[in-house]
Q: What sequence folds into this?
């Protein structure tokens, strides 16, 4: 599978190779980034004293680097200059798949698992850049309108980063896959798609009169799909570089 | 916090005690189950040879027990009769919180982290029950309309279960929490709520003519919130017991 290495692909190793349903798997950056960039929420798995933790958090991406805020792992990371192995996963649920047999019930989804070694970002310049990115990556241009973080705030925020060493995406789309022998059964079968969309923005009642919904949030229109809006934010952010 | 143990609460230990923002945390079964039952998708963290994995999968709950399908951990579990420590996490994103400073940007969410020891469910009766539950818990009454799993299918499906030993829920709701000194800034601040809803069911084109959308899916109406529908499914399932 990885005989001729493709510069656009992550290496495939026992760690990231799909163990089941490998026809749904992909290892190229485009596929992995598409899943990651369409979401604000990820889950990070790490180990402390043999105990796994799975922490939901906000992530952001810059090239092959992923970043997130401090978590329960922070105390451990402080003492681990060599870094901590983690697996950061993003998943989108796209539909419920109802089959004619229990066995073929399923879900449509897009997921990406990323493996790497987490480090605390403690270089002051790198950290300041990351703390801007966590805002501007979702709301491009927004930090230009905000005061700067004060030193206490920067100090009170732990930023963790990792380069993606290996990754895989896994995607299921489409309809039901039933056994041919079951297809004539008089059973309703099909897909119930699900979608996550934005509702109307709720302005803080303390915002001074006359402050409009800003241009930099122009693509956050009521009713739009969250995954599409966040993908657009990432593209805008990268363009503004 | 746990001086007078509450039978409705999970024990609070260093493993599940919230490390940050503990005013958002809860340890009672009602809070934890509400988060779990509103979702089909969870993330399971486990460790193989020191490497953490974070696998998205479908979960279901029966009392204090959580179940999911086989995963990359399956091979390891086969050799580990004592079980494998895991952390199973469910998270819902409810809104984007845009503040007047980078520091106070946030998200509204509901999450639950559950700790336990995963075992393969290999007792044939228990396994058969679990394979019914994974359908009926989401679509109560549906297995009555399906053929039974054949022995090959049951054999080919790994069911993993764990009793929740410890758990915590963490919830953020409401508006922006800005520093009082920032509130007069001429900056748009507020919340953009997000919601996951059902779209219209897409029937498999091979379903024989005249098969209606079934009564047992009556609450899966187009436009309803997924979390509310799945919570209703769990309640119906428990009632049908």
A:
């Amino acid at each position: 599978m990885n005989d001729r290495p493709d510069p656009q692909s992550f290496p495939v190793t026992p760690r990231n190779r799909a163990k089941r349903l490998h026809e749904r798997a992909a290892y190229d950056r485009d596929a992995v980034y598409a899943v990651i960039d369409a979401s604000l929420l990820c889950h990070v798995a790490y180990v402390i004293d043999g105990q796994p933790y799975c922490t939901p958090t906000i992530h952001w991406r810059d090239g092959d680097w992923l970043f997130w805020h401090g978590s329960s792992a922070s105390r451990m990371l402080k003492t681990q200059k060599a870094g901590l192995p983690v697996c950061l996963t993003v998943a989108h649920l796209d539909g419920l798949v109802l089959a004619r047999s229990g066995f073929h019930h399923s879900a449509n989804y897009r997921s990406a698992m990323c493996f790497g070694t987490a480090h605390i970002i403690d270089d002051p310049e790198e950290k300041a850049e990351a703390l801007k990115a966590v805002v501007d990556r979702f709301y491009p241009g927004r930090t230009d309108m905000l005061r700067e973080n004060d030193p206490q705030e920067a100090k009170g925020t732990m930023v963790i980063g990792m380069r993606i060493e290996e990754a895989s995406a896994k995607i299921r789309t489409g309809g039901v896959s039933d056994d041919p022998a079951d297809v004539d059964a008089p059973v309703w079968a099909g897909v119930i798609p699900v979608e996550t969309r934005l509702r109307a923005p709720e302005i803080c009642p303390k915002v001074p009169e006359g402050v409009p919904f800003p241009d930099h949030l122009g693509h956050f229109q009521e009713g739009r799909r969250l995954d599409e809006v966040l993908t657009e934010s990432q593209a805008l952010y990268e363009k503004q570089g």
Helices of chain A lie at 29-37, 74-79, 124-136, 151-156, 226-240. Residues 124 and 154 of chain A are 9 Å apart (CA to CA). The radius of gyration of chain A is 21 Å. The domain at 22-240 of chain A is CATH 2.30.110.10 (Pnp Oxidase; Chain A).
